[in-house]
Amino acid sequence: MKRTLYKSACLALALLVAVTIFQRSLTPDQFLQEPLPPTVESPQTGNLVKANSFWKSPEDVVAPTPMASEAPQAWDVLTTNCSININLTHQSWFQNLEPHFRQFLAYRHCRYFPMLLNHPEKCEGDVYMLVVIKSVITQHDRREAIRQTWGQERESAGRGRGAVRTLFLLGTASKQEERTHYQQLLAYEDRLYGDILQWDFLDSFFNLTLKEIHFLKWLGIYCPSVPFVFKGDDDVFVNPTNLLEFLSDRQPEESVFVGDVLKHARPIRKKDNKYYIPPVMYNKPTYPPYAGGGGFLMAGSLARRLHHACDTLELFPIDDVFLGMCLEVLGVQPTGHEGFKTFGISRNRSSRLNKEPCFYRDMLVVHKLMPKELVAMWELVHGNLTCSRKLQVL
Ligand SMILES: *[C@@H]1O[C@H](CO)[C@@H](O)[C@H](O)[C@H]1NC(C)=O
Ligand SMILES: *[C@@H]1O[C@H](CO)[C@@H](O)[C@H](O)[C@H]1NC(C)=O
Ligand SMILES: *[C@@H]1O[C@H](CO)[C@@H](O)[C@H](O)[C@H]1NC(C)=O
Ligand SMILES: *[C@@H]1O[C@H](CO)[C@@H](O)[C@H](O)[C@H]1NC(C)=O
Ligand SMILES: *[C@@H]1O[C@H](CO)[C@@H](O)[C@H](O)[C@H]1NC(C)=O
Fold first, then answer.
1. Which domain holds residue 292?
2. Which residues contact 138 (CB under 8 A, 6 or more apart)?
3. What residue stretch is flagged as signal peptide (predicted)?
4. Is 190 part of a structural domain of the chain?
5. Which of 382, 384, 385, 386 maximizes ligand 5 atoms within 8 Å of its Cβ, making it the mutation to test the pocket?
6. Which pLDDT belongs to residue 19?
7. How much distance in Å is there from the Cα of 361 to the middle of ligand 5?
8. Does any ligand 4 atom lie closer than 6 A to the CB of residue 351?
């Protein structure tokens, strides 16, 4: 316990040092005028990425252990070395693409980036379900609403099962002015709540796939034995009680992958659509089955196999489709479930169903609620709600 506390304290301090150095562009020597434990004086400490592992002995950090070929002991990408792929830039099909596709393709080979904020301790102890939420640096209000509602950590998932822990997954701000203003706030937020993982890549729509593979790699290193993972967006309503009830008759060894599953979905070829994919990027008529990224559940064991499966594929710009491609490599079919309404309860936006708490009470995941609506709906669902009948969705 003391050791854990010491580690956490070191970690917090290291992150603080790292973030501050990063932001003020101080050299480590300038910064070290403040009193710090002796271990921090190693010249490597100025390097942001070493911060998370600096309490380990130098041999641990430098020399890869024999097991390193299977899974590294710590995040092992320590520098960003991502240069544009000049093989593409001269090709005419490439030049004819829209700018964001060119940007995606030109950097597609850069698969892993260093960590800026990490929580190696997140899965210490007995953890039953890890809840991870895709978020961006500016959406602080959404994270706050989730912490107050469905993202609350609990020490027991009930019925003698382990804890439920929560993490937000972030990249860096996509605009320079946001980066300087928000990074420091984010580090502060993380010190308060200890629930942010951040990697050093731009948080853009097409980089969501990077977020997916970074998380899977992270899980294999820091959370290798968690039975279940829920992954979702930051604008959904989740009913954790129903998730846990759903999981209660599943075994962690099963290849559980459950969500709002789309089968035979066709790539969108209309250029003005957010999900437009040109035929040069994907020429098959349909995508493999995949679960909508709004929220899905998977077994931890499957997540670890997915990490290796994804590593055999070229990145695809739509993250949930990409995960479907990885599942296809494993030969695992995602399972559709009525309780995942990641496209909203009713596609008719003005439908009263979308505001009906009795529906939310019986669902697992519902898209899409803004922070205030989320908190209000959560209170309604957990207040004295009288519903005429319980839907049979579980
Ligand atoms: C970055 O990668 C290039 C080519 O892969 C290599 O030549 C160069 O030395 C690398 N730079 C660093 C700082 O690792
Ligand atoms: C560019 O092409 C060369 C030769 O075919 C290949 O070795 C290299 O890996 C390619 N670079 C990238 C970034 O794909
Ligand atoms: C993804 O992030 C990397 C690293 O920050 C950046 O170089 C690249 O341009 C980004 N890609 C897209 C499509 O935004
Ligand atoms: C959507 O729902 C509203 C209210 O229930 C209804 O009046 C309207 O006709 C519906 N629109 C469509 C296109 O179904
Ligand atoms: C729920 O109802 C009970 C009894 O009717 C009442 O005492 C309690 O204050 C109510 N709770 C809320 C949150 O409205």
1. 115-340
2. 173, 178, 182
3. 1-25
4. yes
5. 384
6. 41
7. 17
8. yes
